From TrEMBL:
SMART domains: CRAL_TRIO_N, SEC14
Top-rank taxon: Eukaryota
Organism of derivation: Brassica napus (Rape)
Residues annotated as domain CRAL-TRIO: 79-239
Name this protein carries in UniProt: BnaA09g18450D protein
SUPFAM superfamilies: CRAL/TRIO domain, CRAL/TRIO N-terminal domain
InterPro entries: CRAL-TRIO_dom, CRAL-TRIO_dom_sf, CRAL/TRIO_N_dom, CRAL/TRIO_N_dom_sf
């Protein structure tokens, strides 16, 4: 990092030191003792503009206070059957770690249906995973590795991606906007695997809309991506959908399916949230109810991407072979 960047960090910290309570308190849950790394993340997200980064972070802290994000890890999704429904339709999990110690998040983009619960449960679930990652998982692996580990890698499985994805764009935009504004630069690299032609067609029109910083993070791998991913992680850390050459990502044996509610990661997360609820003096939540979070206005980049994808998908509505893997057909140049 150059002198200018170091000065930006110092200036940014000086501004943040002046924020009032309760913003200062919630900021501790954001940085978890890794203050410098957190300031750098927000500076990167605003191209090292100190004023813009300061505005972004303060708005993030206000969002946390207004929506009681600090207590979301004591708000279980109940009953357990509903939690299972959410996990079965919002496919995400941790398959292991890279050789550098970064958690590997596996996401079943193509087979996630988001159709078994209200939007608020999916948003609640997503934020809980973010908070568990940042407040429990990353501090733990940082301590284990003896150095700050504040980011993760994500492997996006596009198996099953179809035109029906059009109905999910609004929810995905809400979730990605929450991440953009409140959890910036938490993903080191995105690996896209099992990409059908429909993804390649959409990626071609979306890629130019992304900032260069984001474009460089996205790597579209051939097939299931196993050979490339084995360069950065051991076989045991590969997501289950990367361990075989065939398609199909969610319906696999529970022993290796990192999306399953019975996977150790989801069991640990569920038990952690349940325990923190019970320490408040109640054995079980009194009734079913989601944790409502205010949805931020989507950033302009996300709105434009959503509209572009929608337009592209509508053009393909009469095509019959868009779900085939890229390897099975020739993509237009």
């Amino acid at each position: 990092m150059g002198i200018v960047s170091e000065q930006a960090i110092d200036d940014f910290q000086e501004l943040i030191d002046k924020v009032e309570e309760p913003l200062k308190t919630t900021f501790k849950n954001v940085h978890q003792g890794y203050l410098r790394e957190t300031l750098i993340r927000f500076l990167k997200a605003r191209d090292w503009n100190v004023i813009k980064a300061h505005t972004m972070l303060v708005e993030c802290l206000r969002w946390r206070v207004d929506n009681q994000i600090d207590s979301i890890l004591s708000k279980p999704i109940v009953p357990s059957e509903l939690y299972r429904d959410v996990r079965d339709s919002q496919l995400i999990g941790i398959s292991g770690y890279t050789r550098e110690g970064l958690p590997v998040f596996a996401i079943g983009v193509g087979l996630s249906t988001f159709d078994k619960a209200s939007v608020h449960y999916y948003v609640q679930s997503h934020i809980q995973i973010n908070e568990y990652r940042d407040r429990v998982l990353l501090p733990s692996v940082s301590k284990k590795n003896g150095r700050p580990i504040t980011t993760c890698v994500k492997v996006l499985d596009m198996t099953g991606l179809k035109l029906s994805a059009l109905s999910q764009i609004k929810l995905v935009t809400i979730i990605s906007t929450i991440d953009d504004l409140n959890y910036p630069e938490k993903t080191n690299t995105y690996y896209v695997v099992n990409a059908p032609y429909i993804f390649s067609a959409c990626w071609k029109v979306v890629k130019p809309l992304l900032q260069e910083r984001t474009r460089k993070k996205v790597h579209v791998l051939s097939g299931c991506g196993k050979d490339e991913l084995l360069k950065i992680m051991d076989y045991t850390s590969l997501p289950h959908f990367c361990r075989r050459g065939s398609s199909g990502s969610s319906h696999h044996t529970q022993s290796v399916d990192c999306f399953s509610v019975d996977h150790p990661f989801h069991q640990q997360l569920y038990n952690y949230v349940k325990h923190h609820y019970e320490t408040q003096g109640q054995a079980e939540p009194a009734k079913q109810g989601s944790f409502h979070v205010g949805f931020p206005e989507p950033v302009a980049e996300r709105v434009e991407m959503a509209k572009t994808i929608e337009s592209k998908l509508h053009k393909f509505e009469n095509c019959n072979d868009l779900s085939k893997p890229v390897d099975d057909r020739k993509a237009s140049p």
